[in-house]
């Protein structure tokens, strides 16, 4: 009689009944496959974007920046998108005050603030070929802050999404 375990193949000797003789021990080699999997993964940290509006009524824009720091597995294609926030009207991002007043703003992929950062093709597509760690700048702008904007603290929350 031979016994085979689930983890490795090992032949065990069993004495034959009635003959008085024993079988010689036998060993056999068997291959044990070993495998592992590293799954694509990205970790993300985003800093807050804080606008400083000092000259309300000057009809000028107020700019701010934030950063997104990523660490992804090597040889990973990924896209970084930013949604339109909790108070958006279509693709127009808006912050809201405690009194319910709204203040329009937007975020951009470039310092000139000409390439809006959003969803789909408005995201940043990237391939991590080597050390898969990097920082992306996010450039914000509140256009034409004027005396028509009510005084107060305004807030919104954007969701940064990594697709890979």
Automatic annotation (TrEMBL):
SMART domains to which the protein is assigned, alphabetical: SCPU
Highest taxon of the lineage: Bacteria
Keyword set includes Secreted: no
Keyword Signal: yes
Keywords annotated in UniProt: Signal
Signal peptide stretch: 1-24
Pfam families according to UniProt: SCPU
Domain (Spore coat protein U/FanG) ranges: 32-160
Name the record gives this protein: Fimbrial major subunit CsuA/B family protein
Naturally occurring in which organism (per UniProt): Pontixanthobacter aquaemixtae
């Amino acid at each position: 009689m031979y016994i085979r375990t689930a983890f490795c193949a090992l032949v065990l000797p069993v004495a034959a009944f009635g003959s008085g003789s024993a079988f010689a021990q036998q060993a056999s080699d068997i291959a044990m496959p070993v495998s592992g999997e590293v799954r694509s993964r990205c970790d993300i940290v985003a800093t807050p974007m804080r606008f400083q509006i000092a000259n309300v009524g000057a009809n000028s824009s107020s700019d701010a920046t934030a950063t997104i720091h990523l660490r992804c597995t090597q040889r990973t294609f990924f896209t970084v998108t930013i949604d339109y926030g909790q108070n958006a009207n279509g693709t127009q991002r808006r912050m809201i005050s405690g009194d319910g007043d709204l203040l329009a703003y937007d975020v951009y992929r470039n310092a000139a603030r000409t390439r809006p950062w959003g969803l789909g093709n408005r995201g940043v597509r990237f391939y991590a070929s080597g050390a898969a760690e990097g920082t992306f700048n996010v450039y914000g702008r509140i256009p034409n802050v004027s005396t028509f904007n009510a005084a107060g603290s305004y807030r919104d929350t954007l969701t940064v999404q990594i697709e890979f």
